[in-house]
Design brief:
Strands 1-2-3-4-5-6 form a six-stranded antiparallel beta sheet, with no helix packed on it. The protein has one domain (2-96). Helices cover 0% and strands 66% of the residues. It has strands at 2-7, 13-26, 34-50, 60-70, 74-82, 88-96. By secondary structure, the protein is mainly beta. It has no helices and six strands.
Length: 100
């Protein structure tokens, strides 16, 4: 649960509160120190707190991601999803994590 915003200018868009859920998969089979991983999430606006002219707050936001985890700490992935303005995008990321 958290704050969400949609706007074309800072401080001038719809605001609200959203909640969501997600799932993640990490293969237990290790091949040459690489493991496939995937995740997905969906969020829904529960309450719109403002209605400003420069951005319409869409009810649903989603994201799917897939990639490879190398060893225990580095992950390379691609993402596809929508934001609270209704725009859809494709992205690429590299993550560094700690296994404690």
């Amino acid at each position: 649960m958290g704050y969400v915003a949609a706007g074309r200018q800072a401080g001038d868009g719809d605001d609200g509160i959203a909640a969501g859920f997600g799932a993640e998969f990490l293969s237990t089979a290790m091949s040459d120190n690489r493991r496939p991983c995937a995740r997905a999430k969906v969020d829904r606006v529960l309450h719109q707190t403002s209605d400003m002219p420069s951005g319409d707050l869409h009810e649903i936001s989603y994201m799917v991601s897939g990639g490879l985890r190398f060893g225990r700490s580095i992950e390379v992935h691609i993402n596809y999803g929508s934001n609270y303005s209704g725009d859809v995008s494709l992205g690429f990321g590299i993550a560094l994590g700690l296994n404690l």
